[in-house]
Design goal:
This protein has 170 residues and is an alpha/beta fold. Helix content is 37%, strand content 22%. It has seven helices and seven strands; from the N terminus they run αβαβααβαβββαβα. The protein has a seven-stranded parallel β-sheet with strand order 3-2-1-6-4-7-5, sandwiched between helices. The radius of gyration is 15 Å and the shape is globular.
Length: 170
Amino acid sequence: MDELHRISVEEYKQVEKAPIVVVLDNVRSMNNIGSVFRTADAFRIEKIYLCGITATPPHRDIHKTALGAENSVDWEYVENTATCVERLKAEGYGVFAVEQVKGSVMLDTFVPDEQKIAVVFGNEIDGVDQEVVDLCHGCIEIPQFGTKHSLNVSVTAGIVLWDLFYKKML
């Protein structure tokens, strides 16, 4: 840790966080959940909201990919994703689903004008629930150029969170 200039969990809890929160909407894979925790730790994300069927720590399958980030990143379970989105909007967050829909904004051209931003990542099969998409201020899409039309949710989170962190903090 010292050679890599990494901070301790206690120090992490005290440092300034990026004004970004993550909402996981019914994410099934505990490996994906753990990966999102680890990415959130890397970019000092403020908090993760685990919604619906999304599993919560402590769990060995989450820990397997989070590698302890489930202890550093603040998180909260909210049963209903729509309720979570409404709450975040009321708290002044700009809320954006990461989803391929008509009218979505490509990530490379997305400008996060809001002071605080929440990004919603969806289920591995069905994406973000349509009710939740309808509640969001908009949708962000990652440009893709291959034969597949989607990325794994944890890969998507890594790309989007890095981009938002870069735009907001660097």
